[in-house]
Specification:
alpha/beta; 24 helices; four-stranded antiparallel sheet; 608 residues; 63% helix; six-stranded mixed sheet
Length: 608
Amino acid sequence: MENYKKILPFIKPYKTNAVLNITFNILYALFSSLSMLSLLPMLNIMFGKQEKIVEKPVLHSILDLGGYLKDSLSYYITKFSAEDPVMALVLVISLIISLFFLKNLFNYFAMVHITVLRNGVLKDLRNILFKKIIELPISFYSEKRKGDVMARMLGDVGEVQTSFFSIFELVIREPLTILFTIVTMFFISVNLTLFVFIFIPLTGWIISRIGKSLKGKSERAQQESGYFISILEETLSGLKVVKSYNAEGNFKDKFNASVGSLQKLSNSIGNKNNLASPLSEFLGIVTIAILLLYGGQMVLVSKTLEGAAFITYMALAYNILTPAKAISKASYQVKSGLAAADRVFAVLEQENEITSKANAIQKETFDKAVTIENINFRYEQENVLKDFTLTVNKGKTVALVGQSGSGKSTIANLLTRFYDVNEGKIAIDGVDIKDMDLHSLRSLIGLVTQDSILFNDTIKSNILLGKPDATDEEIIDALKIANAYEFVKDLPDGIYTNIGDSGNKLSGGQKQRLSIARAVLKNPPIMILDEATSALDTESEKLVQVALENMMQNRTSIVIAHRLSTIQKADLIVVMQKGKIVEQGTHEQLIAMHGTYNKLVTMQSFES
């Protein structure tokens, strides 16, 4: 029930469509019963049992509405057909056609509005889910599989859309069709209809017992779907590694096992869903068979029911089967939808701890210094930074060096608020970055990472992320500063060349220079370079290093470096070990200390 309440706000923008769908469903249910009831006068005429009424009936009481409608129909048949039974038959057939036409017309209108409602809610759900996915902190994705998040966006949202709007049929259209039909059946024979009531609860109980475990199985199937999408995404991302290690078989086995598990769950769910319709129809036919036996005795033995009325009654009884099947099928779908909704709302309700405060400070300039004061940071239970303190003055280049795991890249993650410090404070010009508007903070910072993250689009579109309104001339200037224009100008379409998925049409050095060009175009006052050259060959490194030096001129830069040859010109080099600063100074000062930095330089010189 809780999930139904959560979905209601998404229906609100389409409340007109919801109301019209309900209205047309009510009219459909009404005319569905009337169209069947209209068979009675036709059969009476054919069997010569049609009552002739020459005076127009008068309604004396609402309780006599059924008799009034019946007498009114007989009156108009008598009036327009005179003594010609064929004319009476034509009139009644015209009435039947009109009623069936209206029934199907209202059905069409109801379906039009439910389609608009379903697709509108699907669009809005996807939009708000994507907004949430993109706003959640990086830490959320270090704990979740990307494939599982993708499955929730692609599969579960669709399941919610399909299943939840079965409710409109489950509680409005089909029940009303059954209700109106039963009222009409009461009008023909009270005894027969009371007899039907014995079997309807029994049928509902049998169907509900079969579908009892459906929600749990649907949830497991959706989790498995997320897992196999994750395997696919990881395999495609690391295809070179998979092939180079001849690991295709290993990944095939993992994928096949996941798909096999999903197949078993899907078969079980599908078979239960498939059972809903034939089971409800079979139980309905059993009910009709018993009605034939009981009603046949009323016609043939006790003579308490006319043959024409009994045939019409049986047509009405059969008319209940279709909505009964729809209800049983919809009830199964709703159980699947509940499981999908749990997974969708689990993401939507995920708390985002890294957000802008109310009335956060909008800071558009950088004037003095970045200060890191006695910060501590932990990934889960592991201390990565301990009482770390550092000041980076405006216009200076500060390099962070140290062995892997010393906490260098964590500084970059904390400065950009991908993560928040556990204790201590990071401030820009004395303003705590937690008090700053998040968009404002990240506008002041440019980030170039070790992995060149590019998108399957043109060079221009990738670089425009830094400044969406930049001109082609500004883009070319940024490419020149990044030492990238020399290869871009030789491409067939220049800056309009598509670089493929993750930029796979380019070399590592070319991709890194485009990443630098993107940062140059953004032109932020603070630049963070997170091991921007560590994955490059010597020739590419030289080109990229020139690009970095061009970019860092007259700019405040924090350089996280693995190759020490790239940071010898830094104003301050900070040597880190196990989350603490062990040395700091210029290149010459640190060499003279003959400490940790000198050992790192010696080791790298020896390796090269």
